[in-house]
């Protein structure tokens, strides 16, 4: 017996807009899809009442948003710290959710914003 009232989500997903957004870090421009993988907010919701999200959870979220290859490339850079990752994730959340003004603020950030070591003057 065939079912008549079946919602075809495969067709809906195929028709969705697959817009991308870009960011530059360490002299290279990266593109990500402008949509949030469902696993990211689901996992982060577990820590909603916590003061800090464990680093492993942040890296899993980043892996899902930026992709394994991009995340590996970023992690290989000596100035890519958990603080930088946190700021990058904040930007990605804002950009994906259409908070363009907040997303644009990331363009103006420098190494000093991430707590990079400053030169010592003798």
Provide keyphrases for this structure.
single chain, 122 residues, mainly alpha, two-stranded antiparallel ribbon, 6 helices, 2 strands, 10% strand, disordered C terminus
In brief, what are we looking at here?
The protein is mainly α and 122 residues long. Helices cover 45% and strands 10% of the residues.
General description of the model:
This protein has 122 residues and is mainly alpha-helical. The chain has six helices and two strands, in the order H-E-E-H-H-H-H-H. It has a two-stranded antiparallel sheet with strand order 1-2. Strand 1 and strand 2 form a beta hairpin. Helix 2 runs antiparallel to helix 3 and helix 3 crosses helix 4. It is globular and about 60 Å long. The termini are far apart.
**Nearest-angstrom radius of gyration?**
18 Å
Question: What number is the mean pLDDT?
Answer: 83
Q: Helical proportion?
A: 40-55%
Number of alpha- plus pi-helical segments = 6
Report the sheet-strand fraction.
5-15%
Q: What is the H/E order?
A: HEEHHHHH
Topology:
Layout: H1 9-15, E1 20-25, E2 28-33, H2 39-45, H3 55-66, H4 68-75, H5 82-96, H6 100-105
Antiparallel strand pairs: 1-2
Helix pairs in contact: 2-3, 3-4, 3-5
């Amino acid at each position: 017996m065939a079912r008549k009232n079946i919602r075809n989500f495969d067709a809906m997903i195929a028709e969705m807009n697959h817009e991308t957004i870009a960011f530059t870090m360490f002299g290279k421009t990266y593109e990500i899809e402008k949509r949030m993988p469902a696993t990211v907010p689901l996992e982060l919701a577990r820590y909603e009442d916590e003061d800090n999200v464990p680093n492993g959870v942040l890296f899993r979220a980043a892996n899902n948003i930026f992709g394994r290859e991009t995340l590996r490339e970023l992690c290989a850079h000596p100035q890519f710290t958990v603080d930088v990752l946190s700021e990058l994730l904040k930007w990605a959340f804002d950009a994906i959710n259409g908070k363009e003004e907040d997303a644009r603020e990331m363009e103006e950030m420098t190494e000093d914003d991430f707590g990079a070591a400053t030169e010592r003057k003798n």
